Amino acid sequence: MSSEHAIAARQKIRQDAAAIGVDEAFISKLVDEFYARVRVHPQLGSVFNGAVDDWPDHLAKLKSFWESVALNAGVYSGRPMQAHMKVSTIEPAHFGEWLYLFEQTLRDIAPSEAAVEYFMIRASRIGESLKLGLFFRP
């Protein structure tokens, strides 16, 4: 793919996302709101609070991650699978709780139903991939 084609493709993704209300500002709001809820969640709170030492730094990484996922921004360079493998308190059932809370947060704050669907497709794939990689490796 030529660099011109890649730039055009990235711009198209950003334009399509903007049309449903998804941009960096919304992603920042979503990450802040969602992880505020995660931190006090009865099942997820202890897992996340036990694994994250520096919440401001972690939130910045998560914002970069979601910008890369939702906007093809290319600003995230972490290794999520390796990071999650270090957390011994994660259980398979946590992924369903995480996804449910993520959807509830979206339904409360998303600018459109299309934005909810846009994120839920991606979040479902990410959660399933992490769950399979953590618990169901051959």
Automatic annotation (TrEMBL):
GO terms for molecular function: heme binding; metal ion binding; oxygen binding. InterPro entries: Globin-like_sf (IPR009050), Globin/Proto (IPR012292), Hemoglobin_trunc (IPR001486). Pfam families: Bac_globin. Keywords: Heme, Iron, Metal-binding, Transport. The keyword Zinc does not apply. Transmembrane segments: none annotated. This is Globin.
